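Task 17 of the worksheet. Students: predict the tertiary structure of the chain below and write it out as structure tokens. Keep your answer in the requested format; marks are given for formatting as well as content.
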Amino acid sequence: MASNKTAGRKTLAPAEQAGPEYIGKTPADEAQQIEALRTHQLELVEKFGDGLPWQPEHYEAAIRSELHRGCEAFLRAGRYLLVARECALRGEWSGMLQRLGMEPRQAQRMMEAARRVAMLPNASTSTHLVAAVNNESKLIELLSLPEDQFAELAEVGETGDLALDDIVTMSVRELREQIRELRADVDAKDQRISKLSDDLNKEHEKVSKANRRWKAADPDQQLIILKQSVTEAEQAVLLVLGSDKTGLRAAFRALAAHASDNDQDNDAAIYLSDVIGRLLTAVRMVRDDEELPISIPLVNDGAEG
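Model answer:
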């Protein structure tokens, strides 16, 4: 039998929602997106905002107060700009830049400088860098370096031919020229590496194509392929041997002519004979290779009787 103790019970009011006000008032997926954005903003404030809670007017005032006050203030303004760029609603960012009298490119440079310095491993490293540069114009020039070289300069004190201690006495123009030369060296090195990589890829593709061609061929076609390989090697040897004006033959002629003009015929003849002997020996070794499964007929090269 059901209890009468529950009869007439009043309906309880819904439990009060705990947490941000949007929870329970928006679809679950939108609420998750809003919470993710909120978490991202808090992380930015913690990392770049020096704990200053996000409010557009607060950050605009903070950025304005840091402008034109030296390198450290330049970096602080760049950190505040990073927070503002990520947290600002549509239209707030461009309006803030206009009120600050700042071009988007200038803001981008300041944010990039702040981001790179923030990525350095410790505070002492970044402090040393800022002290050596001591000028926002020089710091902007350093942004032309690749990120790894920028970090190397800060951490090690030099990168390539550019030393942090030398930057102290450099003018902005001298630093720009030094960085341009350094980048040229890096670009040339990258081009050499890229060309080598391309050559290796082409060679690999060539070998792969030859292997595919070989596997698809019947024995008669494979014999033709092998003959082509021998012919190519033969042509390479003949090319090195050259003609009256190129290669080994031309070198022989030049040496012999010099010897004839200076009464050195006997010495030159012995030397050239030795060269010919070594070449003929190398050819005979190919001909008489014991690993060859067939016998190659002798060719009258003047050595056999």
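Marker's comment: The two ends are 130 Å apart (CA to CA). The CA atoms of residues 109 and 140 lie 7 Å apart.
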